[in-house]
Amino acid sequence: MIWHFLLQQLHKNIPCVLLYVLQSKGSSPGRQGFRMAVSANGALQGSIGGGIMEHKMVEKAKDMLAKKEQIPFFKPQIHHKKTATNQSGMICSGEQFLVLYPLYPAQKNIIQNILNCINQKKSGIIQLFPSHIEFSEQTTPTNFSKKFTFHNTTDWLYQEQLGYQHFLHIIGGGHVGLALSRQIFLLTDIHITLYDDRPELITMERNTYAHQKVVLPYEKIGEKIPEGEQHFVVIMTFGYRSDKLILRQLYQKQFAYIGMMGSATKIQQLFKEYQQEGITAEQLQHVY
Question: Whole-angstrom Cα distance, residue 75 to residue 156?
Fold first, then answer.
C-alpha cells in the first residue's frame, strides 16, 4: 500500500513525491484516483498509468526531490501527438490531470492519520489543493467516492474517500479462499476477513492477502458477520454440511451480496432440504 510505503520512507527521513491522477478522460491509461509514490532513494510504489507518460512524471518527481522543491506541480497530460501543448508522449487520445506533491518528514503526520483510519477500518476524506493536502475522518455519508472541481490551474479541488468502503467475508480458508483473497486484494478499498473452523490450516497460514483471519466454530458464524450494504459474503467451506450450517445462519441477513460455491446438484439438494425445513425458495432467491 502506498500509504505504508510513504510512512516508512518518511520515518527514515527520506523525502518522497506523491503523484495523483485527479481526473481522466477517454482512453487515458491512468484512471481517476490512481496514485504513485517516488522516494528520494529511487524506490517506487503504485502507478499512474504506465508508459512514457509515467516515466516522464517519475523523472520530474526525482528532479523535484533533488532540488528540494516544496511547491506541488500540477500537470495536464493529453495523450495525442497533434495537441499543441501538454503532450504526454502517448497516443491513446485520452487526457489526465496530474499533481505531484513533495512530502518531507515533517509532513508524516498526515500519512499516519490516513493509515490509522484505514487500520481501524474507518473511512476518511482526503482533499488535495493546489498548495497542500488535508485529511479528516469521515463522520457523515457523502454521495461521491471521488470528486474533482476545476476552475483553472491554481484553483481546483480533488476529494476522495479513503479507507475501506466495502467488506468481504470469505468463509472457508482453503485453496479457493486463498485464491479469491489474492484476487480481491488488488482492489484496495475492500477489507477481507477470512473465516475457518480448522486451526493450523496451512492455506490460512499462507494467506497474506486477508486483512483479518478468524478461527471459530461455524455454529457461531452468524454472530460474527455484520449486516449492511457494504458487506459481501462468500461461502466456500470444506464440505456440504458446513455450507448448509452457515447459510442457514445468514440467509435472512441483509448484505450487498451473498454467494455460495457448489455444483448445480449440490445446490439443488441443499435448497430442497431447506424447503423441507420450512425455508421457502423466495427466502433463498437472493443467494447466488
Answer: 12
* 259 close to 235: Cβ distance less than 8 angstroms: yes
Q: Is 56 left (phi over 0), alpha (psi -120 to 50) or beta?
A: alpha
Residue pLDDT tens, the chain, 288 long:
799 999 999 999 999 999 999 998 765 667 899 999 999 999 999 999 888 889 999 999 999 999 999 999 999 876 445 444 444 444 445 778 999 999 999 999 999 999 998 888 788 999 999 999 999 988 666 777 889 999 999 999 999 988 877 899 999 999 999 999 998 887 667 889 999 999 989 999 999 999 899 999 999 999 999 998 889 999 999 989 999 999 999 999 999 999 999 899 988 898 899 999 999 989 999 999
pTM: 0.62
Cell of 285: 432467491
Q: What is the helix (H) or strand (E) element at residue 108, kind and residue range?
A: helix 108-119
Distance between CA atoms of 126 and 161, rounded to whole angstroms? Answer: 6
Three-state DSSP at 66 gives helix
Q: Cell 499533481 sits at which residue?
A: 99
| Best CA proximity match to 10, nearest among 102, 140, 88 | 102
Exposed, middle or buried: residue 79 (CB in 10 Å: 0-12, 13-18, 19+)? buried
